[in-house]
Amino acid sequence: MTAKRPVGYRKPPKASQFKKGQSGNPKGRPGRQQAVLSPAFIFRKVANELISVEGEGGSQTMTRFEALLRQIHTMALNRDPSAARLLDQLRKMCLRDDGSHLLI
Question: Is the pTM here over 0.85, yes or no?
Answer without folding.
Answer: no
